[in-house]
Amino acid sequence: MQTMHFTHLANTFFEEEIAGLVNKNLQSTICCAPLALLLQFLPIIYAKKADSLIVTHQPMQDYIAHMSKYFDGPDIMTLETVRSQQNLNLWAPSQLIEKWAFKKGHVYDYPAWNLAKQLQSKLFCYHNTKRPLGSSLLHTMQDIDHWKNSVKGPLLLKKVWGTAGRGHCLIKDDSKWTEFAKKELMASGVLIGEPFLNRRLDFSTQWMIEKEGSILYLGAVLQKNTPLGNYRASIVDDEDKLFGEDKHLFDSHRSYALDLLKKIRGMGFWGHIGLDAMIVDKDGLIPVVEINLRKTMGYVALMAQRNHFPHQRVTMSFNEGDIPLLPNQLQLSLSRTQSFKTQFYLSLS
């Protein structure tokens, strides 16, 4: 049986594209966002040796030599030098890449963009998953005032668009949250209000809905997040070790997640999905916190452990660890070098 080879392109600007914050040129979209420019090299960690990777600029040779010590890296091409008829494997669906692929003669095989937008919206998650008690849709400042006077405890406002712990604001006794609320209500007409919960354990599960309909469970990852949910690290290990006495709650999440994924499949979506969940207090499970219609940092960590460091505990984190995984700088032109303050590290134990 012939093995399928893919050409990876990590469009980690997916959320920005969903929110309409990218321009019409693929190269400039990536180059204008330092984080997207940096994270485009993530497939070096999970791509197979026979695969290829498309980036905006070739990395420096010392970075390639460093990564070759740990990973069987793919052949690297640039957007300017890539040959036609590439079978694209993306981070997520992309209307921008679909148009670029059609123009350049590449194979783009992903669900309709409007469906991806619908499913990625936090409104879909709000209406189709179990939300914390006291959650509410808020359309006006009066709605917010009534809600915060009727729900006890710290409260959180969330944008309809925004993931990985971004796009939310904790209600405090200052003007920051009111400015946040007014701006977002003017932009989208709705906010999601939720009680701010003391998270005891954050985790995610990684899934793949194949085009023919099979739902594949890829694995679970513990997440280190800030109290507000901003991503910091992913940890991969044996699931019994990861969850310990909370394994029954993890099993409940998997069962709940499968029903949700069947619904998403029924709407016509296929591709990678990461589902975030959390355990609060002693025995409280929020089975789905966010739905991510894309590969995730948890997926990267999972594939690194499975393909390169089996039977070891793998931690991947921003800005601390043992093995740097991304370039420190990138030569954009003869006269311009982009240096990166952010780094993504791998640690083994």
List the helices and strands and how they pair.
Elements: E1 7-9, H1 14-18, H2 26-31, H3 34-39, H4 43-46, E2 52-55, H5 61-67, E3 75-78, E4 88-90, H6 95-104, H7 113-120, H8 122-128, E5 136-138, H9 141-150, E6 155-158, E7 168-170, H10 176-188, E8 191-195, E9 199-209, E10 215-225, E11 231-236, H11 239-243, H12 247-266, E12 271-280, E13 284-292, H13 297-308, E14 314-318, E15 323-324, E16 329-333, E17 336-339, E18 344-348
Protein architecture, described:
By secondary structure, the chain is α+β, with helices and mostly antiparallel strands. The protein has three domains: about 100 residues, no CATH class; about 100 residues, D-amino Acid Aminotransferase, Chain A, domain 1, CATH 3.30.470.20; about 60 residues, Dna Ligase, domain 1 (2-Layer Sandwich). Helices cover about 30% and strands about 30% of the residues. Strand 12 and strand 13 form a beta hairpin. It starts with 6 loop residues before the first strand and ends with a strand.
| Biggest sheet overview | 8 strands, antiparallel
Proportion of beta-strand residues = 25-35%
Number of strands: 18
Unreliable stretches covering 5 or more consecutive residues? none
What class do helices, strands and sheet pairing give?
alpha+beta
Number of domains: 3
Q: What is the approximate shape? A: globular
Mean residue pLDDT: 93
Count of helix runs: 13
The amount of helix comes to: 25-40%
| Gyration radius, rounded | 21 Å
First CA to last CA: what distance? 37 Å
Subunit arrangement of the protein:
single chain
